[in-house]
Amino acid sequence: MLAGCSGGRGDGRIDDDEAMVRSVLTLMVARNGPVCTDRVTDGDTLSVFREMARAPRSSRADLRWFPPTGLKVPTGEPTPPAVRDRSDALPPMVQQTLNGAATRMARPWGDIRRRLTLTEDALPAGVTARWWVINRLRLCTPRFGVRDPVRYGDIGFVVVEANHHGALYALQRRQGRWTPVAEWSNWLY
What we know:
The chain has helices at 2-6, 16-32, 47-53, 57-60, 92-105, 132-137, and strands at residues 35-38, 65-66, 127-130, 143-146, 150-152, 155-162, 165-174, 177-188. By secondary structure, it is α+β, with helices and mostly antiparallel strands.
């Protein structure tokens, strides 16, 4: 019973979904310093993408994929992200490829996502993962949340949310490692 509470296999091995989350959390630590997150992933990673893809064309004009920089957590009151301030959008063919992959995986049926309990083996240095109740009682600030990762073949997606902001990350398996390759327009939820 005690081993079940420790949250880790202890052998250092992690599966593809855990490796995707670890890679994105590493990006968060690099941008924000030490972070805390809920231990269990929760939510549909592609739900915002699915909804925005159905929005009127004028609403989609600023939705693009950019090089991944990591979700910067603003301090103070939530404000709309400055999507238009980025001029480094990825090339049109990359946009089309990532949009196509996200659209295929964003179907509300045929669930290809999996809820994870983040083990110590899957956490990069600088990340503390706790039971969600403890994070709220200890006022973990900022508290990052990770939605359930989705993947098909060598491409996958993970969403990170913090302080009412969210970002979708596209990852690709390269030489056996999952690497963030793009960040979709940030949003305010």
